[in-house]
From TrEMBL:
It is found in: Cell membrane. Coiled coil: none annotated. Keywords: Cell membrane, Ion transport, Membrane, Sodium, Sodium transport, Symport, Transmembrane, Transmembrane helix, Transport. The chain crosses the membrane at residues 6-25, 37-58, 70-94, 115-142, 148-167, 179-196. PROSITE patterns: NA_SOLUT_SYMP_3. The keyword Protease does not apply. Signal peptide: none annotated. This is Sodium:solute symporter family protein. It catalyses: L-proline(in) + Na(+)(in) = L-proline(out) + Na(+)(out). It is a multi-pass membrane protein.
Length: 238
């Protein structure tokens, strides 16, 4: 019951915060890019929160638990490096162009409405698939924590976030994302310190991974490559 109340209160809280942020939106520039005057901390919060969504907390964590924690770390390092290089190399041109969105930038860059339409369609398809994964993960988490039907959680989460996002635009998204970023950062750091201390420090964590029997071989750098549950069991897929 306590999980249900906490989740419902958080959904109401995010909706109210998004509504208050939306009252400051006065034009399209405010709605799409927060008037180009967003604090650095808000930009950091929304980027991290968007990157570390349910796809990371559920999907990637589950992949690591299946026997591939170090493989997942390698994927994360490569992906994070790509995001950093993309921002440093490409971001300055996007800002210099004055475009509000990436599709608009490509439309200006190539002086073509067709290129802009293709870029917009690519963005919609890519973000649509991402949002489907995020909503599915949120629905699963809601169902597991509260015991309520999966579809109920899916509808509640979708309605809440869609409602304040459509109304408040980027200011509301950045504010709520930053709040989420602070909450799960504190929870992750605090939880990790507690788990590490309970296991006897880093040496206890490593030793526990090496001797545990539920997932034998999970501490190997290449992950589990033998047995019926191995995701990469054949030589062609290693």
């Amino acid at each position: 019951m306590i999980y249900t109340i906490a989740i419902l209160l958080s959904l109401v809280g995010y909706f109210v915060i998004g509504h208050l942020a939306g009252r400051r939106v006065k034009g399209l520039d405010d709605y799409l890019v927060a008037g180009r005057n967003a604090p650095t901390f808000f930009i950091l919060g929304t980027l991290v929160a968007s990157y570390l969504s349910t796809s990371a907390f559920l999907g990637e964590t589950g992949f690591a638990y299946q026997g591939y924690p170090f493989v997942m770390l390698i994927f994360a390092a490569v992906s994070t490096s790509g995001c950093l290089l993309g921002a440093l190399v490409f971001g300055r041109y996007l800002r210099r162009s004055g475009a509000r969105t990436v599709p608009e930038f490509f439309g200006k860059r190539f002086a073509s409405r067709r290129v802009q339409a293709i870029a917009g369609l690519t963005t919609i398809i890519g973000l649509g698939a991402y949002l489907l994964g995020v909503m599915q993960g949120a629905g699963i988490m809601f169902s597991e924590l509260t015991g309520m039907p999966y579809w109920v959680g899916l509808v509640l989460v979708w309605a809440t976030y869609t409602g304040f996002i459509l109304y408040s635009g980027s200011p509301g998204v950045m504010l709520t994302d930053t709040i989420m970023f602070v909450i799960f950062s504190l929870a992750a750091v605090g939880g990790s310190l507690y788990v590490i201390q309970d296991l006897g420090g880093w040496s206890g964590v490593v030793e526990g991974l090496l001797i545990q029997k539920d997932k034998p071989g999970i501490a190997l750098w290449h992950g589990v490559i033998e047995g019926p549950e191995a995701s990469f069991s054949s030589p062609a897929r290693r």
